[in-house]
Amino acid sequence: MRKIMKKIKVHIADDHQILIDGIIAVLSTEKNIEVVGYSLNGEDVLNWFASNEADVLILDINMPKVDGIVVLQNFFEHSFQQKVIVLSSYDDTKLIKEVLKIGASGFLAKKCAGENIVEAINTVYEGHQYFSKSIQQKLMETFTKQLSQKESSLHDSAFFSSITARETEILRLIAQQYNSKEISEILHISVNTVETHRKNLIRKLGVKNVVGLAIYAVKNNLV
Amino acid sequence: MRKIMKKIKVHIADDHQILIDGIIAVLSTEKNIEVVGYSLNGEDVLNWFASNEADVLILDINMPKVDGIVVLQNFFEHSFQQKVIVLSSYDDTKLIKEVLKIGASGFLAKKCAGENIVEAINTVYEGHQYFSKSIQQKLMETFTKQLSQKESSLHDSAFFSSITARETEILRLIAQQYNSKEISEILHISVNTVETHRKNLIRKLGVKNVVGLAIYAVKNNLV
DNA sequence: TTATTTCTAACGGTTTTCAGTGATGTAATA
DNA sequence: TATTACATCACTGAAAACCGTTAGAAATAA
After folding, report:
1. Which nucleotide has the shortest C1'-to-CA distance from A177?
2. Residue ranges, CATH 3.40.50.2300, chain B
3. Pairing with B157, which of A1, A81, A204, B73 sits 20 to 30 Å away (CA)?
4. What is the rounded CA–CA span in Å between residue A41 and residue A12?
5. Which of B159, B178, B202 is nearest to A177 (CA)?
């Protein structure tokens, strides 16, 4: 019994013909991948891609006429079901985040090996995400930085060194939009006491007013 | 001229001797890696590792007596400069985040290939992070999920449907701890106007007071 | 034991917030 | 043209926040 394999149809958009030819050459050796079209500028991509039945779009982000980002946005505004792999000369973290937000499934640095394109196409076609190695590394680093920042902000010197448990309790309630009177009722203490704690918090945290307290609370995951 | 290569010294901690032997076997073929010791339980790791000069600790997270997490915490509390690669049977996202927070440099699923261990050791020794493939995938997914959530919060119905540009401007200033009078001076408008905008914001966003506004602003990345 | 911190509470006074209501000019839109 | 949305401004009064300072009781650390 022979398994009939459906070919993955690929459209390529890049302003450098030579690069397109290169990619086509690489993909031509792959039995389950077929290049069904290409565009040399952003303007062209949407029309082209909408009319053919490509499954995957390989999109260069730096293109004349219409920027790749704009193409991406248009693309997902029309909620096409196809997958997009973004191609870029630089592995700029901001850019990567941007395109991921918009909805790209993969991100390839141009310096990566040809085999990665094949891998990327297969991966996104199966519904997963693909990132070339250097980009993975970068993203992972910002990711773990995020984690450690969260952690370190919790271990914020001000937070653990001088804010008492009671103050934290009150800070939490302030950030829940309770005013002093309400907090005094919740904690069964005098309004004056709440106000004192509040004043101490403002002083200790070096903020100006309740707004500062609220923001501090949010940034330290107290809400 | 021959380059003299310093061997990377590795310590392994796992309660399964057979796994340790396996790793040692894999690493024995590597010229630049040397296994200098191993521990069969968590309790043992810290003493052992502190006294020898290993560069990299390969640490199983599921161990008897002292849990791997506890070992990790102790480890970084004593601020050892060495790198830690965490080994685990499951690629549980929560667990990964946990160990990354604490300070691990790498995470390997036990199902991964032997060569990955070599790659991991070299990578973390050079100061980078290493994650086995399945884990990368998982982390990337939660990462992009985060991004999309951030995005969706920006596209919060309330935010884009009813808040005007001027109101946003004022909201931003409120979140910067300016009071109405100060905002009126910054924007060269009457205090009454600022107050009106403020009231409208409170109404439109369904919050109780400035604190609610501030929190809304932070959560929508306006500060 | 002594010293310090923390929680509690209070007083007096000023400033700000907040709710409600109403009004005007302008610009876009139906 | 009429309507709507927006930004602007005003007045009132009650409530809340803010500022400075003081001070006792209890728990905790030196």
Report:
1. D16
2. 8-143
3. A81
4. 10
5. B202
Contact A105, A130 (CB under 8 A): yes
Shortest CA distance from A208: residue in chain B:
B177
Q: What is the pTM of this model?
A: 0.49
User: pLDDT tens-digit profile of A61-97?
Assistant: 776 555 667 777 777 666 567 788 888 766 666 677 7
DSSP character string of A10-59? EEEE-S-HHHHHHHHHHHHT-TTEEEEEEESSHHHHHHHHHHS--SEEEE
Whether A205 and A213 have beta carbons less than 8 Å apart is answered as: yes
What was the pLDDT predicted at B193?
93
Domain B8-143's class? alpha beta
Give me the CATH topology for the region B155-219.
Answer: Arc Repressor Mutant, subunit A (1.10.10)
Residue A63 pLDDT: 63
Chain B residues within an 8 Å CB radius of A177? 207-209, 211-212, 215
| A207 contact residues in B (CB cutoff 8 A) | 177
Q: Using CB atoms, which residue from B97, B151, B217 is nearest to A101?
A: B151
How many angstroms away from the CA of B1 is the closest CA of chain A? 32
Chain A closest-CA separation from residue B198 CA (Å): 13
